[in-house]
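go over this chain:
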Amino acid sequence: MALETTVIESKISEKFGAEVSNFRMERDIFTFEAAPAVIKEVIRFMKEDETLSFNFMTDLCGVHYPDNEKNAQFAVVYLLHNWIDNIRVRVKTFLNGDKPEVDTMTGVFAAANWMERETYDFYGVTFKGHPNLKRILNDDGMTSFPMRKEFPLEDPGRTDKDDRFFGRTPSNYEPNN
């Protein structure tokens, strides 16, 4: 018998109560939210529970919501997969905009290591307890986090790029041209 979303919801709700919420189908993936204080235990429970058996972390990524209230400006999104029943689940945890931090998942899923480093590198989310939390793709000297929406899409100080080659000349913006 396939694992039903109602079973997933009831087992997680029974174990974590008000710390988990907003269970729903979102783009054909069962999704819910967990408080940052319990997210690690929620993920561990989903992996170790014999009925749930979410034994693979497919992805972990960050999202920046600059228009949200201060305590929910960042999210870390975990995508888990149960290979036995071929079920995927998305778990979100929202973090404070001033100090986005959450416990590392490296002790639960080794695959979280590089994904957390990438999320730190691009969004500035600190994963408490991570064994090697440092930039993975950007230069170590960077002081900003380029995927945050408060930063411009392009570096206005670049001198190695000629906008004419990208169709961005002043004549392109004149009407009737």
Observations:
- The chain is about 20% helix and 25% strand.
- The chain has a mean pLDDT of 90.
- Strands lie at 20-26, 29-34, 56-64, 74-82, 87-95, 101-103, 126-128.
